[in-house]
Amino acid sequence: MTFEIRDLRLKIYDGFTLVFLFLAPWQTRWIFAQGYLNGGIWEYGTISIYAVEILLWIIFLLGITNGTLVLFARKVPRWMWMFGGLGAYVFLSTLWAPAPHVAIIAAFHFASAMIALWVVGASSWEYKKMAAAFVSGAVLQAMLGIAQTVFQWAPASTIFGLAVHDPQLLGTSVVMHAGARFLRAYGGLPHPNILGGYLAVALLLVFALIVSETKKRHHVAWFAALAILGTGLFFTFSRSAWLGMAAGLATWFVVSRGATSGGGTSRWRLVVGVVALVMAFGVAGFFFRDALIGRVIGGTQLEANSITERVGGLREAMAVWRSSPFFGVGIGNYTVRLAELAPEQPSWFYQPVHNVPILMVAELGLMGIMLVFCVILNAVKNLRRMSAGLASARDPSLSFRKTGVVILSTLIIISLFDHYLWSLYPGLLLVAVSLGLCHSSFVMRTSHR
Question: How far is CA 335 from CA 183, 211, 359, in A?
């Protein structure tokens, strides 16, 4: 009976892990206390919990009770333990944060992201199945985003966590051309840029599935997913996601050079996939060329304001950092300190700087950034050691293992032009899932499932 119960817990744990990866892009949440600042809604001070967070904690408890995570803890690399040390510092930062309640909820979201990394990294599922689960959820997000842009309307849904997005209302993310406001794709996420990040990562996973797939009938499904995800990525009009996607593909061609086996077929499939992606962008760009011109060429007041705000954000970030250079202002408290330094501004004025490294320096200070560098250095050492082992084993040129490096390069580029990978839970979750899949791809467990 004891073995039957444990076996049942293992099956539930494994099943919930795939469900979590499928639902990761869906951001339904319960808001316990809406944040307000200077009389306006303040997203970064809102206290809420996401449905996928609850699922994550359930999976975590199941993993503890059935011993899965305990066994995994005995063989995790050093960089993961140091990542845990960074998490401890994040919680310590709540002690000196000017708004402790904001720091506590931000630290809780960071802890949930750490659990996501742990759960995905410890999963016994084959990497291909985990990637397929994540891609399937992203495809639905892309289809929703395409519909929102085509119909220029995004209705609300409490169950799915969707808000109303009307291009005629101020505050809605739009592209402007010739005075017309064109709604960008949100999907079920808080901002088109965040949807763009998820779709970029999903697209890279699709490329991995295409180049590694041995059954030709599955190629049709993956190329269909590529077309949908590519069109959805286009409709986000997220330049950071576009750049990140381009950087990821460029990295992939670089790491595939010098392959010793299977390289020709893999590179040919990658080229075909890139052509299909370009065609998806080209078709969407032809029918929505006015919006594309407005986004790429710019010249509108909206684009000018965006550039001005981002340049001004860099100056504000320096002021925030100088107010507490060694220990930082505390996680999630960038906008709190900004409000103290520049009072009497409207609530929408208080936004994190659009650069993750600079934002982390401001919130964690020099002490926290030292921990971040330790995590990065140990992760790079671990990656190089594993990569050397793969090279000696004559690994195929475009394996899932290389996908991890490619995805990380994409996230690095995005982090230089936006803040959501650190400031918002959906972004933290995307980073955590990507790191978990990266670790899993190098471990490449042989699953019986």
Answer: 27, 44, 10
